[in-house]
Amino acid sequence: MKTTRSVHVIAGVACLALAATACGSSEGSDSGDSVSISVVTGSAGAYYEAMACGAEKAAKAAGAKIDVQYPDAYDPTKSESLIRSASVKQPDAMVVVPTDATALTSALSSVASSGTKLVFADQTTDDPSVAVSQVLTDNEAAGAAAADAMADAIGGKGKVIIDGAAPGSSAVDERVNGFKDQMAENYPDVDVLGVEYSQSDASKARSIINGTLAKHPDLAGVYVIYETGAIGIGSAIKAGGLTGKVKMVGFDTAPTIIEMLEEGVVTATVAQQPAQMGELAVEQALKAIDGEEADAEVSVPFTVVTKDNLEDKDVQAIVNASANQC
Questions:
Q1: Residue 219, SS3?
Q2: Which of 95, 124, 188, 236 would give a disulfide with 39, using CB separation of 3.0 to 4.6 Å?
């Protein structure tokens, strides 16, 4: 998708040149002055840039103005600041990735009470009633699917560690719980050592895996529930000469993750569809703006990607979604 937009530097982050088409605000070619939509993602990075692409595609099709902002870290404090700043502009609708299930309650309630139509994307909160719609992956099911992939990779036995982004996020908690529950119910010989949280920091993720390997040199696998952590841990596995020895199951399809999948560093990754999520979220927002009843919840499918199915047409469509739409 080609649009004309100004590029914003949000909270100190300038997006990389190759991703800059997802980093600003865009105006539709029709009567864009009539409807305005703000989007606050969870952080910067390929996943949320793809979500922004989908959101911009839907906005352009409707002739709506859209402004996309990225917190410079996956942090509810930073999210709240951008949500409140966007709300001051009184957009007709706001699409938000709630980075914490409880910490953003006040800010989100304020948006909804102002008359702005609120849509949650990617994650939810403890009180989703303030949103007219939620567009989500079934994260518990995705976590269970990741457990199946891990168990298959390690032969149904061995020690496994989990790296999350930050506790309190609905997606993180559901992916962790789905994984742990599936292991407990179906793979009794897999020992889940626990959950570490790297706060969306690749260097912290590397420290987690290196520290775990020092204590457990017989570690069989690591489950990483988000993009940045998978990249950090993958680099540590490569540097330690552990490719193929420590199995990694991750999330999402950033180019670096796909490269590591092809190299054998990543055994499997759960591919969400962020571009579709962004597009559907804006479509729900537009329905609400037009006075129609939005769908309370929209589920977006996921796919477990391995080296064996990477070249399948449907999988390639998901992997290339960002490049196809931006």
A1: strand
A2: 95
Distance between CA atoms of residues 170 and 43, nearest Å? 15
Rounded CA separation 162/184 (Å) = 14
Tell me the CA distances in angstroms from 185 to 53, 147, 189, 278, one per residue in order: 39, 11, 11, 34
The angle subtended at Cα 104 by Cα 101 and Cα 110, nearest 5°, is 135
Record the tokens describing residue 144, joined without a space. 């269970």
Residue 190's beta-bridge partner residues? 158
Structural domain spans, the chain: 5-137+273-301+320-325, 139-271
**Strand pairing of 24-27 and 5-7?**
antiparallel
Pairing mode, strands 297-299 and 133-136:
parallel
Measure the CA–CA gap between 226 and 155, rounded to whole angstroms.
Answer: 24
Mean pLDDT of the region 30-46:
81
Confidence band for 194, pLDDT divided at 50, 70 and 90: very high
Tell me: pLDDT of 207 over 70. yes
Topology match between the domains 5-137+273-301+320-325 and 139-271: yes
Architecture of domain 5-137+273-301+320-325: 3-Layer(aba) Sandwich (3.40)
Name 17's Cβ contacts closer than 8 Å, sequence gap at least 6. none
* Confidence at residue 46, expressed as pLDDT on a 0 to 100 scale: 85
Alpha carbon 109 to its chain centroid, in Å, reads: 23
Average pLDDT over residues 21-33: 42
Within its chain, how far is the Cα of 211 from the centroid? 26
The class that CATH gives domain 139-271 is alpha beta
Residues listed for the chain: 326
